[in-house]
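Q: For a teaching session next week I want to show students how multiple molecules come together into a single three-dimensional assembly. I've collected the sequence lines for a complex. Could you give me the predicted structure tokens for the whole thing so I can convert them for display?
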Amino acid sequence: MSKYLSFEAEIFANRRLLLAALADIGYADVEEGEALTLYGYQGDARADTAEIVVRRQHVGAASNDLGFRRTAAGYVPIISVFDQRTLLSGQLVVRLRTAYSERVVQEVQRRLHGTARRTVEGSVVKIRVRF
Amino acid sequence: MPEIDFTIDRQSGRLALHIKGIAGPACDNVAKLAKELLGEPGREQPTAEYHLRPQVRPQIRSQSGARGG
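A: Of course. Below is the structure for the complete assembly, covering every listed component.
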């Protein structure tokens, strides 16, 4: 009657929640399409393509496009090492992952018609959903 | 009352959840929902509670209040 699961992979399984999480951390302007070309900070086309793209104009002057390539498992981020180190004080991926996790909890609560109680202990957020 | 305890580590972005108080198959349904939104978990572990069978007691209605006669 009880089960424990932990999730660590840098894959975002749900498109809608990924878009919401991106907006939560300040990247609401996204482009969607099939195999969109990603561009580097100098406007150079990169070899990588993605289905969800935050164009560099919305990221920062020295930044590259942020991409998310759709795979069978979900959306895989394509983010340059430079951007991972510099954007949001080097916390881009962690902040996105955290925002996505918060969105997942909201979605589970909604689907189960549950109530949520949230507590914060340092850097750890605990949310209990009852249904 | 069934519940899910979510733990989000804001330093790593990792999410863990503990499903409690739900009988076996229903527990799996909640786990399935979590996997739909999060992908395959790095770790999945039924806890001791999981293996408990839900207790179903037959209900016997008393006829003590029978009318008639």
